[in-house]
């Protein structure tokens, strides 16, 4: 089912037990997030549980949204621009999805207010560095998979992965796997109503793919991911 303005307009909105204004969009077989510019400006929590969404993103800027429930979907990737779209996001419940690579979670690191993340039921959780990687990337995180993040874990994460300015060889190896999971067939920048406005050519996609494999710093990887997301080359 398409997430139309009509569906959003008819969706139940109420105050949840946490005192947030919640928009209920669960169980509609939605495949793509779109038309979110039509939601009420006072919405603080969005419930996308039990749909078929594959990509977390394509929101307009929603500065009041602090909780996102998107469990039981088909998530495989997170748009690099998620922090610009949801700058106040504090709580992310994304259990029972299909995220595989540690680097696919890196856009969460740009969410400066992110407090809790729950990812049980995703293939990525079987990676031996899973917990420490997210702790390293998400500096503000306090709870991961219902468990408190300890200072000892933060220190261990720095020992393993270094710093943003000087990542370890292991950190760069993990980052390099991000290119293998990017959906290279799209490369489209979308507006709030889901309309595509720019598309990469096959040659451009291959060029970015190669540059991602050879990136040396986290900033360089982030810049290339932004190009892939926007569909605009600036090399």
TrEMBL record:
GO CC annotations, alphabetized: ribonucleoprotein complex
Keyword annotations of the record: Leucine-rich repeat, Nucleus, Repeat, Ribonucleoprotein
Main location class: nucleus
Locations listed in the record: Nucleus
SUPFAM superfamilies: L domain-like
Annotated Gene3D superfamilies: Ribonuclease Inhibitor (3.80.10.10)
Family note: Belongs to the U2 small nuclear ribonucleoprotein A family.
Record's protein name: U2 small nuclear ribonucleoprotein A'
